[in-house]
Amino acid sequence: MELFDRQKAAVGQGERTLLVYVELPNNRHVHNGMDEFEELARSSGLFVVKNLKVTRNFANAKYFIGSGKVDELSDLVKELELDLVIFSTELSPSQERNLEKSLECQVMDRTGLILDIFSLRARSFEGKLQVELAQLRHLSTRLVRGWTHLERQKGGIGLRGPGETQLETDKRLIAVRIKNITKRLDKVHKQRDLGRKSRVKSELPMIALAGYTNAGKSTLFNTITQAEVFADDQLFATLDSTIRRVILPASGEAVIADTVGFIQDLPHDLVAAFKSTLEETRQSNVLLHVVDASDEYNPEKIDQVEDIIFEIGAGKIPTILVMNKIDCLPDFAPRMDRDQDGRIYRVWISAQKGLGIDLLYQALAEQLSGMMTRAKIQLDVQSAYIRSEIHNIGYIHNEKVDDFGAWVLEINVTNHYLSKLLNKQGVKLLWEQKPQQKSLI
Description:
Rossmann fold
């Protein structure tokens, strides 16, 4: 699709770029918003020539900024030989066109920049489709840019009239492409739903990682699961949701999901396109909100993430704040913080150094205790080797050998693992106490 390819290629590698950071009153932004904006641009491979901060009391209908500032930008574009100007606020299609006409160079807003970064980072089939869908939805409102001719086809004898204009053709092609992508994503979503229903049926605890971008979610995921998910010190290093089954000390078997990082004012097109991926967060039993403890602006970023969690319908999921990267803090030891009711609500760790991971396991065990079943089982002499497996997967309250040499164990395990145990030869259930707290999924 030629038009889409041209728009997608608008932000390539190394364009000389001017960043215009616009501050409006009563707008909620993190204090390092300008630094984050520049980091976003660099993450897209752009060469940032200059940063410019503009304060406005209100948005100008034609340019968003004032006409005097537009003249200033026009001079800068010529003086610095710039290829691209990016605004930190969302521009309307008409504002973007007016700015391009006045500045005589490519203009885009923060939403377009984030979409470009997502297109660079997406690796899986689903992730690429989700990003393309978001890009097409964003592009469909900006189709009039660049099309100055009125018609593409001429009417001949018996075919009088202007024919189909280029704009109508582009809109039709994009609508067809959006429809095709939506159908393909629906198939992927159905497969996800089947996997999710299977986990619900087996009563496996579901743990989701959420947090601001570059907080260390993927590093923590790799530490817990021993996986090799791509993790790097950059914004949106992870886009594709990854799910793994793990065995947690004192909690047993569980499912853990690593999801896309959040950022302030995350574009709505992206939230909609990644709905299926974010569904893993909404359907979890426990949410691990990973925070960069070394970031001085983390209180504001915590609020930003909590807003998005609430927006996607995950506001009532039990949450543990995971204060990561304590190795970047001077003389700071891992610890757990409890609220006035004695519940663990915050754990301080370093995923990269492996510090405090045992405390996180303890916090998860307490949080998931409502999904655990207490039972008494008997292992015959030939099945005694299963004891060591149970020690790794669950919690043994007490154990003893009866008069016939069989082991009798009182254990605390997930319903899923207890069912697997009872299917093994030589394992007998003596009694079982089901959990009173119901699963959230």
